[in-house]
Amino acid sequence: MLSEMYEEDAENHMAAFAATISFLVLIIAVSIIGAVFVGTFLPIFLMGPKMMQSGI
Predict the structure, then answer these.
(1) Distance separating alpha carbons of residues 23 and 16, to the nearest angstrom
(2) C-alpha 1: how far from its chain's center?
(3) What is the pLDDT of residues 16-54, one digit of tens each?
(4) What whole-number distance in Å separates Cα of residue 29 and Cα of residue 35?
(5) Closest by alpha carbon to 36, among 28, 47, 46?
(6) In the 8-state DSSP scheme, what is residue 56?
(7) What is the radius of gyration, based on Cα positions, of the chain?
(8) CA end-to-end distance (rounded Å), the chain
(9) How many Å apart are CA 13 and CA 7, to the nearest integer?
């Protein structure tokens, strides 16, 4: 009975650890994708006012 209790406790800890790690990986992936989008589109948006002023 004691070994079953320890096995269940270890399984609970491993499930919580796996959920935490998967959440952290998701956050890291979202931040990397966001950085790529910002790095791609920010120069285009910053170029807009300069192009408008040079046309006038």
Answers:
(1) 11
(2) 41
(3) 999 999 999 999 999 999 999 999 999 888 888 888 887
(4) 10
(5) 28
(6) -
(7) 24
(8) 83
(9) 10
Residue at token pair 């952290």: 24
Copy the structure tokens of residue 54: 């040079």
Residue with tokens 């956050």: 27
Residue 19 backbone dihedrals phi, psi, to 5 degrees: -65, -40
pTM score, whole prediction: 0.69
Q: Which of 31, 9, 13 is nearest to 21 (CA)?
A: 13
Q: Which two tokens stand for residue 16?
A: 């919580």
Query: CA 8, CA 2: separation in Å to the nearest integer?
Result: 10
> What is the DSSP-derived secondary structure letter of residue 21?
H
Mean pLDDT of 4-21: 97
